[in-house]
Amino acid sequence: MDPKLTEVLLTGFRSLPPLFEDTPNAVHELTIASSVLHFNWLLCFVLFWYIYEHAVVLSVKLEDQDAFERDFFQLKPYYTDACNRLPPSPQEYPILGLNLLRLLVQNRIAEFHTELELLSSTALENPCIKHAVELEQSFMEGAYNRVLSARQTVPHDTYVYFMDLLAKTVSTWTGSNDNKAAQLRRQRATIASGDSEVATASDDSEAVSDVKDRGRGTASDGRDRERDN
Predict the structure, then answer these.
(1) Contact yes or no for 121/136 (Cβ under 8 A)
(2) Range list of H helices, 14-159
(3) How far is CA 206 from CA 48, 193, 195, in A?
(4) How far apart are CA 77 and CA 74, in angstroms?
C-alpha cells in the first residue's frame, strides 16, 4: 500500500493515539493498524506506555523538572484516555502523586487542585495521592513541622527529591518569617524606648515648670506682704 494512503487511512482512526476515542470500531481500527504497519499494535501501545513511565521516573532521578513535566504530559493520555482498554499500571498512582508534589513545590496550587478534580474517588484514596493532599493541607495551614516530618513517611522512593525541595522551601519561608519577626520586635522595642524617653522628658519638663510656678508664687507673695507693711 502507498505510504501516503496509509497515513491518510490511519489519521481517520480516532481510536488510535493521541485521541484514544472509544469509538464503536475501535477494535477493528486497531486490527487494521496492526496489519498495515506489520506489528502488534497492542504490544507497541504498552511499550510506549512503559517507556514514558520510565522517562518520568528517570527525570526525577536526574532532578530535571522540565523533563518531568514534558514526559508526564506525554504519559498522561495513557492514564486518562486509554484507561478502559488496558489494565491499570502499577506506576500510575505513584506518578500521579509525583506530579501533584511537583505542582506543590512549584507553588502552582490552582493546577494542583485542577489535577485533583480529574482523579477518581478510588485514586483519591490511594496512599500516594493522599500523601500529596495532606502535604498541601499542612502547607496551607502553616503546619510546617508536619510538612518536614512527612519526608520520613513517603509512599514511594521517588518522592524524596520533591520532598527535599519542599523542605528547602519551608526552611526559607520560616527563616524569612523569623527574620521579619525579629525586626518587628526590634522596631517595637525602639518605639517603646522612644516613647519612654519622651514620657520622661515630658515629666521632667512638667516638674521644672511646676518649680518655676512655685517660685513665682512665692516671690509674688513676698512683694504683696511688703506693700501691706
Answers:
(1) no
(2) 26-37, 41-61, 65-80, 92-105, 109-117, 121-124, 127-141, 144-149
(3) 89, 20, 16
(4) 7
Q: CA–CA separation, 187 vs 193, rounded Å?
A: 10
Spell out the per-residue pLDDT of the chain, length 229, in tens. 444 445 555 556 655 555 555 666 666 566 666 555 555 566 677 778 888 899 999 999 999 999 999 999 999 988 887 766 677 889 999 999 999 999 999 999 999 999 999 999 999 999 999 999 999 999 888 888 888 888 888 999 999 999 999 888 887 766 544 444 445 455 656 666 655 554 555 555 555 455 455 555 544 555 555 555 5
C-alpha cell at 7: 497515513
Using CA atoms, how far residue 30 sits from 34, 48, 85, 88, 170, in Å, is: 6, 16, 12, 20, 50
Measured between alpha carbons, how far is 90 from 68 in angstroms, rounded to an integer? 18
21 φ/ψ angles, rounded to the nearest 5 degrees: -70, 140
Can you tell me the distance from the alpha carbon of 103 to that of 210, in angstroms, rounded to the nearest whole number? 70
Q: How far apart are alpha carbons 170 and 142 in whole angstroms? A: 9
Q: Residue with C-alpha cell 527535599?
A: 164
Which residue type occupies 115?
A: E
157: helix, coil or strand?
A: helix
